[in-house]
DNA sequence: GTTAATATTATCACCTGGTAATAAATTAAT
DNA sequence: ATTAATTTATTACCAGGTGATAATATTAAC
């Protein structure tokens, strides 16, 4: 079929790379970049199955809103005593190509609930001792239970345990110190 | 002046709320929602300084790309031995209303570099012992140095230290265990 | 009830960034 | 030089707007 479509193949690759790199470029911008006509860019997009700018922008934007709902939510709280939060795990939280949630998301959940319970605006978590019991998969509902073990003027000692379907998957101790907006 | 602009005020509030809640609605969809004409929606948007759908979508999308470049970047690596990564801190990473970066971002940086250095696809971080020396503000460049202390068939012991302008701000020990995509 | 002010709606021409289809020009291989 | 693949140009159309102007409510005050 295409014996001399070398240049075209190269252009297709350049197009794919460019769009992956900066998805908000219009066809005419891409035409300038590739040094071809707008018509050619459109043809190339069609054959490669790449949607138009507006759809590409929309895809990125929708992804954004979908991963900001992965935030944990406080469902019960007794200030400086205890608190409970929940978080649904999703695709975005996983190691690429797997169903296993990165521990940083569980850590974040723990930090967030600890901050709420201790009612701190900003904190330095001096020490954290963490134990993960098992991996967590996407699509599960995690529950974090936080309890304050001691409150001192200088710092607070807080425990957080995270459960997946009543099975403990994570626990940590935080030694937290409140910080103002000023530099220490 | 505006004696009977009560209903208009209410409509303006409804409009602002709706757009904040779901920013991807077109004027005609908003018109149906508010039970007014498209012309009115446009006028309202103008007086409230709300941009059109496409710009709103673009804003959300741009926000998305801007905070995914807050991700740490590996700049040097010797597999299973050591590695260095850098990350620029930004507004998005801070406790609301402050310039202090949440520890979860520093933890994430540490986890990411540890994963790269140990060349694991997915891992269970069994134990993490963490010490934060001081708070980190937005707008700084953090450098993480990771070194592998021991590699065994079952697990690896990894240290990560994070520096802000040569001052150590964070250190941790990870006991990491590689996991496949299968459930354990 | 009439009037004047304010609010809403309708209409029109125009813009951007596309789709879809077709014809014409270019280019490489034989 | 001929042929076939490839690229470009052209045209008509669409969605979701902007901006301006005019017509039509709606309401308060007289």
From the structure above, extract its key features.
homodimer; 184 residues; alpha+beta; Arc Repressor Mutant, subunit A; Thiol Ester Dehydrase, Chain A; 2 domains; 6-stranded antiparallel sheet; 5 helices; 36% helix; elongated; DNA-binding
Quick summary:
The structure is a homodimer of 184-residue chains. With 184 residues, chain A is of the alpha+beta class.
Assign a percent range to the helix content of chain A: 25-40%
By secondary-structure content and strand pairing, the structural class of chain A works out as alpha+beta
Gap between N and C termini of chain A? 69 Å
Count of helical segments of chain A? 5
Q: Please name the fourth-level CATH homologous superfamily of the largest domain in chain A.
A: Hotdog Thioesterase
Proportion of β residues of chain A? 25-35%
Poorly predicted tracts of residues of chain A: none
Which two chains touch over the largest interface? A-B, 44 and 45 residues
| CATH fold-level assignment of the largest domain in chain A | Thiol Ester Dehydrase, Chain A
What is the gyration radius of chain A calculated from CA atoms? 24 Å
Specify the biggest β-sheet of chain A.
6 strands, antiparallel
Mean pLDDT of chain A: 88
Architecture (CATH level 2) name of the largest domain in chain A: Roll
**Quaternary arrangement of the chains shown?**
homodimer
The number of strands of chain A is 6
User: What's the overall geometry of chain A?
Assistant: elongated
CATH class division of the largest domain in chain A: Alpha Beta
Order of helices and strands of chain A: HHHHEEHEEEE
Domain module count of chain A: 2
- Order the strands across the largest sheet of chain A as they lie in space: 1-2-4-5-6-3
